[in-house]
């Protein structure tokens, strides 16, 4: 790992998830048994831990060892059931893919789909994503995807939202010059949160060319029906990313009348 990355002061990692019961169905248990040795990365973690080993080195040599080649690396943070990352890995065999997820059932389902397609360009990690990304060498990743992260709607929980300045700083390091962070949400308040974190970050550029009006005050479950009467401002967002398939989760949001917000940020080609 580079001296620049090692010199960073340790900081408390974001915990943007809640541990849930992870009992696997018989089908998913069989998939885990059959495919975990093929797809799941060994990050030196203790049994049941989502924290990576202290001496983990995530660099180009690790990528070559894990994937058996060097190729553009796409990382999805919070891959859920794996629909998007598997579909893209199937469509683009010339790219390497890494799915980061904390929930075992989602990982098992991803393995099942990947195994059925006999994919060789996909790897998975059961890990608190910001911890792993903080250990990656500069310029290792081409794109990062964060689709429909947990909105943590209460104000007191906003600090647990995944998109935070600390994560943006780490991604600005481990993305290659000109690399992209693609974000999607169906929650207006989360879209506003992303704009607040990212639009003034000097290491990223908002690539959006669509003007979108958002309420500039917090909107929670109890005030959602009043959102249209709150002060609004215009923000720039992106067209729908055509590499993102419509999952059941996104479809339910659309059917509920929620607007999908796509945001695309490009890391500066000239690192500070």
UniProtKB/TrEMBL annotation:
Its EC number is 2.1.1.33. Pathway: tRNA modification; N(7)-methylguanine-tRNA biosynthesis. The keyword S-adenosyl-L-methionine applies. Keywords: Methyltransferase, S-adenosyl-L-methionine, Transferase, tRNA processing. It holds the Pfam family Methyltransf_4. It catalyses: guanosine(46) in tRNA + S-adenosyl-L-methionine = N(7)-methylguanosine(46) in tRNA + S-adenosyl-L-homocysteine. S-adenosyl-L-methionine binds at residues 76, 101, 128, 150. One of its GO terms (molecular function) is tRNA (guanine(46)-N7)-methyltransferase activity. Substrate binds at residues 154, 186, 247-250. Belongs to the class I-like SAM-binding methyltransferase superfamily. TrmB family. Catalyzes the formation of N(7)-methylguanine at position 46 (m7G46) in tRNA. NCBIfam families: tRNA (guanosine(46)-N7)-methyltransferase TrmB. HAMAP family: tRNA_methyltr_TrmB. This is tRNA (guanine-N(7)-)-methyltransferase. It comes from Bifidobacterium kimbladii.
């Amino acid at each position: 790992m580079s001296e620049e990355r090692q010199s960073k002061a340790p900081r408390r990692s974001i915990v943007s998830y809640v541990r849930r019961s992870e009992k696997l169905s018989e089908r998913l248990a069989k998939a885990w048994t059959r495919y975990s040795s093929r797809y799941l990365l060994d990050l030196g973690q203790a049994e049941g831990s989502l924290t990576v080993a202290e001496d983990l080195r995530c660099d180009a040599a690790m990528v070559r060892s894990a994937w058996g080649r060097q190729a553009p690396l796409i990382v999805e943070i919070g891959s859920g059931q794996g629909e998007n990352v598997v579909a893209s890995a199937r469509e683009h065999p010339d790219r390497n893919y890494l799915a980061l997820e904390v929930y075992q059932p989602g990982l098992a389902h991803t393995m099942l789909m990947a195994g059925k397609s006999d994919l060789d360009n996909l790897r998975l990690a059961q890990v608190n994503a910001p911890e792993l990304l903080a250990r990656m060498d500069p310029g290792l990743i081409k794109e990062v995807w964060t689709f429909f992260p947990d909105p943590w709607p209460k104000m007191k929980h906003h600090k647990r939202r995944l998109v935070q300045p600390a994560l943006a700083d780490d991604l600005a390091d481990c993305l290659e010059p000109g690399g992209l962070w693609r974000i999607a949400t169906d929650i207006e308040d989360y879209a506003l949160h992303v704009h607040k974190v990212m639009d003034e970050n000097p290491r990223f550029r908002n690539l959006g060319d669509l003007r979108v009006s958002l309420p500039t005050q917090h909107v929670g479950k109890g005030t959602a029906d009043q959102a249209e009467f709150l002060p609004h401002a215009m923000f720039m967002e992106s067209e729908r990313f055509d590499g993102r398939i419509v999952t059941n989760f996104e479809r339910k949001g659309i059917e509920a009348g929620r607007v999908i917000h796509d945001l695309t940020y490009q890391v500066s080609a000239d690192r500070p």
